[in-house]
Design brief:
The protein has 402 residues and is α+β, with helices and mostly antiparallel strands. It has ten helices and five strands. The protein has three domains: 133 residues, no CATH class; 83 residues; 119 residues, 2-Layer Sandwich (Heat Shock Protein 90), CATH 3.30.565.10. One of its GO terms (molecular function) is ATP binding.
Length: 402
């Protein structure tokens, strides 16, 4: 995952912690006031304790299900006891209990798995609607309808948030899967290229043997060495392709089927890189608003085909993002260079992020991170200290020749 995505996750987690702490502090203060005001009998204190458990469930994290079951059990048990055997005079803590149970209901609908969703929601609804029975049957008749409206709102909020998260999860899984399938298509082409080289060299060796021309040991070694290298590269690409296809069509990840599989390229499909940097030159040269410049390090050498294809994909996505989100940029610099045994692909602009007019799906960098990680590399996308934006990918270069 890119650094940008990790940063957004940290912001979301910090915001969630802040909301939980704020709500927990307010609930604790309210319950303390209730406890101070109604410290008359054990039943009133017990009601405040049940409300405290319900509020802990509302802000709980990893043990949310356990706290939810505890809160529902205590609430239903307390209602049954108070309705049948004892009716306290003061029930201020019930308001905090009902509010917390409504929050727990929305959270349960949002994040509970399908096996627990219906039973937990039914128990929570019963606990909320039964609370007025603690006063009297008349009180239950008067307050059950308003509580039913509040319960319906909580259910609606939970269902909406669940649908939003499910849709985002499916879109994210589909973006990753499509990028893997795209890379697998590229690797398939590279395997075919290597196998063709093996066949050609083997045919040349057979032709030389049949013609009776004497071959020196050096010539034979060079010929068989080429066949060996092409076969090794073909096997490496094939292993990567099979691994990517297994991940992209994982039967245990149904969200990956949110979109149809990537279409088979037709005669009108844009060409894909076939192992050289020619198309990268054409891609950068065709980007004129703002103008882009390409810099290739002299020691770059011959790169593996999958590295070239991934570099082309990184530059293409980065330039697209510049056009979408940095229309005020004056220039874009694209560079490929060696860096600690890897190839650094960098796209940097000097824009300030103004004049954003075009919409974005938000999954382009996710797909890039998936592709780069599949090759064993890293992707960084974020603002530059001196201003502007940069996308930097480190791709393993293998045994590239100088």
């Amino acid at each position: 995952m890119s650094d940008k995505g990790s940063g957004l996750d940290r912001v979301h987690r910090a915001g969630g912690c802040f909301v939980r702490v704020a709500y927990g502090g307010f609930a604790a203060l309210y319950l303390l006031i209730c406890l101070y005001s109604i410290f008359r009998d054990a039943a009133s204190v017990w009601i405040v304790a049940v409300a405290a458990v319900a509020n802990v469930a509302a802000i709980s994290g990893r043990r949310f299900t356990a706290w939810t079951i505890a809160a529902v059990t205590l609430s239903l048990g307390t209602t049954a006891y108070l309705a049948l055997a004892f009716r306290p005079e003061f029930l201020a803590g019930v308001l905090a209990e009902i509010g917390a149970l409504l929050i727990v209901t929305a959270r349960t609908v949002r994040q509970a798995d399908r096996r627990r969703l219906v039973p937990l929601t039914a128990l929570l609804g019963a606990a909320i609607l039964a609370c007025p029975l603690r006063w009297s049957v008349v009180g239950a008749a008067a307050f059950t309808a308003p509580l039913g409206v509040l319960l319906a709102i909580a259910l609606g909020v939970g269902l909406y948030l669940r649908a939003v998260e499910a849709r985002r999860a499916r879109a994210l899984a589909a973006a990753r899967r499509d990028e893997r399938l795209e890379l697998a298509r590229d690797l398939h082409d590279f395997v075919a290229h290597h196998v063709t080289g093996i066949v050609v060299q083997a045919q040349a060796a057979r032709f030389a043997a049949r013609s009776g021309a004497a071959q020196s040991p050096e010539q034979l070694d060079r010929m068989f060495g080429g066949i060996e290298k092409a076969g090794t590269e073909a096997l490496t690409s094939m292993r990567r392709m099979v691994g990517l296809l297994r991940d992209a069509q994982n039967a245990d990840a149904p969200d990956g089927e949110a979109r149809p599989a990537a279409a088979v390229p037709g005669p009108d499909s844009p060409p894909r890189p076939a192992g050289d940097l020619t198309q990268l030159h054409d891609l950068v040269a065709g980007f004129t608003h703002p103008p882009a410049a390409l810099t290739l390090a002299p020691d770059l050498g011959t790169l593996p085909p999958e590295v070239v294809a991934s570099a082309h994909r990184v530059v293409q996505e980065a330039l697209t993002n510049v056009r979408k989100h940095a229309a005020d940029a004056a220039s874009v610099r694209v560079s490929l260079a060696r860096a600690d045994g890897a190839v650094e692909v960098a796209v940097r602009d000097d824009g300030r992020g103004r004049s954003r007019r075009l919409p974005s799906s938000g999954f382009g960098l996710t797909g890039l991170a998936e592709r780069v990680a599949s090759l064993g590399g890293r992707l960084h996308a974020g603002p530059r200290p001196e201003g502007g934006w940069e996308v930097v990918a480190l791709l393993p270069a293998g045994d590239a020749k100088p």
